[in-house]
TrEMBL record, chain A:
Domain DUF7348: 32-104
DR2241 4Fe-4S iron-sulfur cluster binding domain: residues covered: 235-320
Region (Disordered): 1-31
Transmembrane segments: none
InterPro entries: DR2241_Fer4, DR2241_middle, DUF7348
Record Pfam families: DR2241, DUF7348, Fer4_23
Name of the protein: DR2241 stabilising domain-containing protein
Ranges of residues in domain DR2241 stabilising: 125-234
From TrEMBL, chain B:
Gene Ontology molecular function, alphabetical: lyase activity; metal ion binding
PANTHER family given in the database record: SIROHYDROCHLORIN FERROCHELATASE, CHLOROPLASTIC
Claim: Coiled coil is one of the keywords in the record: no
Entry protein name: Cobalamin (Vitamin B12) biosynthesis CbiX protein
Keywords on record: Cobalamin biosynthesis, Cobalt, Lyase, Metal-binding
One Pfam family it belongs to: CbiX
GO biological process, one term: cobalamin biosynthetic process
Length: 397, 289
């Protein structure tokens, strides 16, 4: 492997020069499909109109022959000679075939697959040398490894980044991208995942040998629309819808959320973002703010792919908070020992950080330990479950 | 390039909610009638807001996997898909007759065919009957049987009751079941008193819902008396007050639903080849001989 740590967005995916580390551009055979595709493409062009490959171009002449131009004097040739010339240049021809015929035009798919091997920044020779070693990319919790066959076809291995060093034989292997739907439904503990970009993807599986289109479909199944949004962002066309606009749009049972914005600042939205959108909760990089002119005070995170508007999980939670936050604070009087106050804080921290399952049964040093919590409840709750025996509503007394 | 987009509610809490959507999408994919089949959700991902940007085709058919015309099909989906100039009058519907509207989706700046919901399509009648066949495991069920088609009443949506009555009437006209009744959860005639509404000893109860969830797995079984508490489960059939009730669960989970999705797209102009026949054949209940 070229690099044992997955490359990130800005990371160098490819060595600067082929051969620097002793690797070389692999020998590539020219498959018949690729050659036929070149002839078809030339048929669709007028005589003299060049079909461009890296380092050379080919055009039809007026007499059923071909002309190859590679910087020197254009060379006329027949089909057999063209086949020979393209076989010598099989890397460039298969690269053209991979992107123009296999990957196709669809913007997000094409951009994603080109990004994986830095096809817009590196030469064919450099990329093929790197692909021969394996190019690694990270996408959310996924590790994608791209390779090339001796026919110039791209193959991709997709798995959970935590399984980076696990042998394929020890993972559950899949071929159909739609299998990924079942892999993303539950987390490792068997709990339903309502948010696909939550960092709770379970591992233990691998798509060991995907073609380019199936790679794209697999990634889009695991992290829906992330490639499309990443692509729009790269093109400078990401349509961000900020908090205010999103809440104004809501209707039905969610219509109430617009009343939470009272023109008194955006502290409540900072809290929402801190609660729901932190990297520990969602791998998307939040690009939406309070409104176009007002940024939130909370960092948007470091994810590769952007979040362009508050998602349905945030809107649903906001609806709950809108109701809860319409309440006025009251002063309650409780008696707690200093340790009990700290214990309440420890319990809130453990729940908020999703750590309750990690706290060992007999670890009574932990405030959020179950025995400690049960002791606190036994001591401080009355029969109605009121903390300190103090009713929630003073009228209940 | 022809694309189908199935849009459905989905859930933050219930993983079963999206299951029928995926199943029907898979059935349709297998026919090869569309170059791509995508799914989008209100509560899952890709969201309605972002599903169209994942679509490659230039002939795009959007079919809502919803039971009735109403809030979702008339307001939420067109708004979230950003269908320019949408107005419910585009459908010119009496609450049952929405077919399709061709509008530019601003998100992708391309035209899409926005279809009426599956639940009000005439082919849905066949799915209800097929559901009765599935739950009784009898491709000829009808003789000696009553059929109850059950849904929300008008309290939530006036068109909900219309769809239920429409299909119940159509099934009754076929003279296949001894009796056919439309029953409701929140208005008369109520599903709670099911045995009172039927003379037949055997009644198939088909809830007109897209996915199994709270209503079909907890509410209705308890209201009808199939069980005291849904966690106890129940048999099919289960005898309540002398009536054997064959509880079918959500009609939307029936494989033939894929046919209705296709019908909606076909009505909007999609070229389906033999897909309709293929789906009707592959989702058939075995005749048993």
């Amino acid at each position: 492997m070229a690099d044992s740590t997955p490359a990130t967005d800005g990371g160098e995916a490819v060595d600067d020069e082929a051969g620097d580390d002793g690797t070389a551009t692999p020998e590539i055979d020219l498959p018949g499909d690729a050659f036929d595709a070149v002839l078809d493409a030339l048929d669709d062009l007028d005589p003299g109109e060049p079909l461009r490959f890296e380092g050379f171009s080919v055009a039809r002449d007026d007499e059923g022959g071909y002309v190859l131009a590679d910087g020197g004097r254009p060379r006329p040739m027949d089909e057999r000679e063209l086949h020979e010339a393209l076989t010598e240049r099989a890397a460039a021809v298969t690269d053209w075939y991979a992107f123009e015929r296999v990957v196709g035009e669809f913007g997000p798919r094409r951009a994603f697959l080109r990004w994986i091997e830095d096809a817009d920044g590196e030469t064919v020779a450099t990329r093929y040398a790197a692909l021969a070693e394996g190019i690694e990319r990270a996408w959310g919790e996924l590790k994608i490894t791209a390779t090339v066959t001796d026919r110039g076809e791209r193959r991709y291995d997709v798995r959970h980044a935590d399984d980076a060093d696990v042998s394929v034989d020890d993972l559950e292997a899949h071929e159909d991208p739609l299998d990924a739907r079942d892999l993303v439904t539950f987390d490792e503990m068997g709990r339903y995942r309502p948010l696909k970009t939550a960092p709770s993807l379970a591992g233990g599986w691998v798509f060991p040998d995907l073609g380019p289109r199936d790679l794209y479909e697999t990634v889009e199944t695991i992290y829906p629309a992330t490639v499309a949004n990443w692509h729009r962002e790269r093109e400078g066309e990401l349509d961000v819808t900020h908090w205010r606009e999103t809440m104004e749009r809501q209707s039905g049972i969610y219509g109430v959320v617009k009343t939470w914005d009272r023109g008194e600042g955006h502290e409540h939205v900072d809290w929402v973002a801190e609660a729901c959108c932190d990297d520990s909760q969602c791998l998307k990089r939040r690009e939406w703010e309070y409104d176009e002119d007002t940024d939130l005070d909370v960092d948007g995170g470091d994810g590769v792919f952007p979040c362009r508007e508050p998602c349905s999980v945030v809107v649903s939670a906001a609806r709950k908070w809108t109701r809860l936050e319409s309440e006025q604070p009251r002063t309650y009087e409780f008696e707690l020992t200093p340790s009990e106050k700290e214990q309440v804080e420890a319990i809130i921290d453990a729940v908020a950080d999703g750590r309750t399952d990690e706290i060992r049964e007999a670890d009574t040093k932990e405030g959020a330990n179950r025995y400690r919590a049960r002791f606190l409840r036994a001591k401080r709750f009355d029969d109605e479950g009121n903390l300190g025996g103090v009713p929630t509503d003073p009228d209940e007394e | 390039m022809q694309s189908l987009v199935i849009v459905a509610h989905g859930s933050h809490l219930n993983p079963e909610s999206s299951a029928p959507t995926y199943d029907h999408a898979d059935t349709i994919r297998a026919t090869g009638a569309f170059d791509e089949v995508r799914t989008g959700f209100w509560k899952e991902e890709p969201h309605f807001r972002e599903v169209l940007r994942t679509v490659e085709g230039d002939e795009v058919y959007v079919v809502p996997l919803f039971i009735s015309e109403g809030y979702f099909t008339e307001q939420v989906i067109p708004r979230e898909l950003r269908l320019a100039g949408w107005d419910v009058s585009e459908w010119d519907s009496d609450g049952l007759s929405a077919d399709q509207a061709t509008l530019v989706a601003e998100d992708i700046d391309r035209e899409v065919h926005y279809c009426g919901p599956v639940g009000t399509h005439r082919a849905m009648t066949d799915v209800i009957v097929r559901r009765a066949e599935s739950v009784t495991n009898d491709a000829d069920v009808g003789d000696g049987f009553g059929l109850a088609v059950v849904g929300h009443g008008t309290e939530r949506n006036e068109n909900s009751a219309k769809a239920i009555e429409y299909h119940a009437d159509r099934i009754a006209e076929r003279d296949r079941f001894d009796e056919v009744k439309a029953l409701y959860m929140d208005e008369d005639p109520e599903v709670d008193d099911l045995p009172e509404h039927f003379e037949s000893d055997d009644v198939v109860l088909v809830p007109l819902f897209i996915a199994d969830g709270y209503h079909t797995q907890e509410d209705i079984p308890e209201d009808v008396g199939l069980c005291e508490d849904h966690t106890e489960g129940y048999d099919v059939p289960e005898t309540v007050d002398g009536t054997r009730i064959w509880y079918a669960g959500a009609v939307g989970t029936e494989p033939l639903m894929a046919d209705v999705v296709l019908e909606r797209a076909a009505d909007a102009g999609a070229d389906l080849g033999t897909a309709l026949d293929d789906v009707r054949e592959t989702t058939r209940v075995a005749t048993g001989d």
